[in-house]
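Quick one: structure for this chain?
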Amino acid sequence: MSPERFEKIKEVLLKRQTDLTVIMDNIHKPHNFNAIVRTCDAVGIQDVHYIPVTKGYRRLNYYAKGSQKWVEAHQHNDFADVAKDFKNKGFQLLAAHFSDNAIDYREVDYTQPTAIVMGTELAGISDETAQIVDKHIVVPMQGMVASLNVSVASAVILFEAQKQRLAAGMYENRSIQDERYHKLLFEWSYPRIARMLREKQQAYPDMDENGYIQY
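Got it. Here's what it folds into:
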């Protein structure tokens, strides 16, 4: 690995936003799922969350043009549980959703810990999810089409969040904790070795972090 590549990895990890994320609630089209993940990487999001559709659609394939190497996708079974966890951590939950209470997505303060909720491609979020989240946001439309593709809408919202966070200097100081930072730095810098160690740990669960097996 070249020194330039190593510096690029460190720069990306420095800018990762640990208090900004996306929750995909029942998004079932792989190209939309992967496009959202790719945008998350572009704006510095390390973790995304999703509740998969369990009936009627094939399993999602996580191959976001290489972004799966850099963004971790966490699967959950129920949105209510995920929402509760994020609210306990002090996150505001914003759902892209048409309602009488919906506000322009640009009126939100994205410098606060934020989870953006995106619903299914056709139906959007469920009534239950709409009741759980803190705010509904919309991207104003001026044409005949009523809405954007879910991955496009996600990109529009996320780049507004990036704009606000750049202005606030939030990409200048590392927010990833030391232990995770060094773990990701190693895995991204030496992916083959990291993969071999993971496979060895799966085969030998008693192996410690130095590669020794305790008897």
